[in-house]
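so ive been stuck on this for like two days lol. basically i have the seq below and the ligand is coenzyme A, smiles is in there too. i just want the complex predicted, nothing fancy, no docking runs or whatever. if the output looks off dont worry ill sanity check it later, just need somthing to start from for the group meeting slides
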Amino acid sequence: MIHTVGTDIVHVPSLAEQLSDRASAFAAQTFTHAELAYAQGASSGQPAQHLAARFAAKEATLKALDHAAALRQIDAPALAMTTIEVLRDERGRPLLALHGEASRFAESLGVERAQLSLSHDGDYAVAFVTIALTG
Ligand SMILES: CC(C)(COP(=O)(O)OP(=O)(O)OC[C@H]1O[C@@H](n2cnc3c(N)ncnc32)[C@H](O)[C@@H]1OP(=O)(O)O)[C@@H](O)C(=O)NCCC(=O)NCCS
């Protein structure tokens, strides 16, 4: 089994500013309905920190997939952010779900499993992704 990793850090106030621009399509182009609903309803009362972590997760996933593409010597396609989704299990652990083009690309790379960890504190949110590829 081969593993690749990706990580990303996001400044929460900068993301909040992008989200607050009502003329911008940023939120709809970046987050799924489920991600927006979770962030809006989270008990923290700070939706931007949850969305910043999810944005970091999407970028970290792109990095891990790009490393995998380099190993396989395949060109990585441009992926829409909404094709990479962060879901939660019954205990609140984050899960990665790939859709559409991201799912097809992962299949072409031989991705067996993708794992994600998130953290946020104050002004920053981080994500760490590992991808396991068939050998
Ligand atoms: C898991 C736990 C320690 C995280 O503590 P924390 O410092 O508040 O977490 P952070 O602020 O760094 O990160 C928050 C992210 O952790 C993730 N998370 C939450 N519960 C998690 C869990 N049980 N396992 C892994 N990740 C978890 C979520 O993605 C969350 O972000 P989100 O709400 O935006 O999705 C805390 O939720 C906890 O004590 N849970 C109950 C007990 C438990 O599950 N213990 C693990 C035993 S091995």
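The chain has a mean pLDDT of 96. The first strand starts at residue 2 and ends at 11.
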